[in-house]
Amino acid sequence: MSFFALNTRVSLSAYGDNAAEALQAARQLIEQCEEKWSVTNTRSELYAINHGGGIRQTISGETARLIAYALGMARETDGALDPTVYPVLLAWGFTTGKYAVPSDERIRALLPFVGFEKILLDGNDITVPDGMQLDLGAVAKGYIGDLVIDCLRGYGIESAIVNLGGNVQLIGRKDDGSDWNIGIRSPFGDGAFASVRLDDRAIVTSGGYQRNFTDADGNVYHHIMNPRTGRPTDSGLASVTIIAADGKRCDALSTACFVMGAEKAAAFWRDRGDFDMVLVTDGRELLVTETLAGAFTLTEESDGWNVSVIKK
How high is the pLDDT of residue 63? Predict the structure, then answer.
């Protein structure tokens, strides 16, 4: 099954007696989540939160759980992931397609409205200070992917692949019993630079190549913002791929580790150890965590790239 949702192409495949029914339920779930969490849809719950004028609001339990997760990841990554960066993204035009390079004065004026610690979430009640807005794009697709996986399992599905525009999540192995072989797209071209053998895991890649624009002087600006500077992150990384048990953690950490840069991302992995990681630097160097190295294969087009293993 393939359809457009979440501002991307969604592809769902499941195997088993109830596959057709399960896939229909999964599609309905995705569309319901999009209705609730779209940052631009004036009918969405997130839009209402963002335009509440700083007043305490009561929100649905699922939305509260999603926001709580995003805020928790912001704390865990020391703000490398910050769901309050939306006013800055808006100024750069990444949510509207009206791209522009904001002035230094404009960025300085917006930065006081960025800061996850200012969001007050108490159970199902939330207060977003006036002028601040949430963007859950760095966690929502992974979170929705986890809900889809739970939905499919509820129908007895034991083999499935869920692809939400590059956010890939797996149930079990392929129908023939073999591992899934998932390609990782090169940030420097259209093809895959590597593949990874996986089962029952999630894999998410973030990179500056995914959304960017070029100004009149030929400067390229991408959508992954550094919350502290209000500018596109300049961390020396071209892409970050995270592999973990759940999609929401992959989604959050692919963005956070991109902002951190290679050295801090490696230190974060050593400290946590509950995910695997592939880093591609701007200089075409690959860094792969040692726990993933055995399942990681370069394509022929990647011959000659410098590969290093990140060790504990």
Answer: 98
Cα gap 1→177, rounded to integer Å? 21
Which string of DSSP letters, residue by residue, matches 4-62?
Answer: EETTEEEEEEEESTTHHHHHHHHHHHHHHHHHHH-SS-TTSHHHHHHTSTT--EE--HH
**Rounded Cα distance, 267 and 140, in Å:** 25
Owner of token pair 């300049």: 234
Overall residue count recorded for the chain in this entry: 312
Nearest to 207 by CA among 145, 254, 160, 243: 254
Distance from C-alpha of 224 to C-alpha of 251, rounded to nearest angstrom: 13
Residue 42, CA distances (Å) to 10, 48, 50, 138, 175 in order: 23, 7, 10, 20, 41
For residue range 188-242, what is the model confidence (pLDDT) as tens digits? 887 899 999 999 999 999 999 889 999 999 999 999 999 999 999 999 999 999 9
Q: Tens digits of per-residue pLDDT, 170-202?
A: 999 999 999 999 999 999 887 899 999 999 999
The tokens for 307 are 């590969």
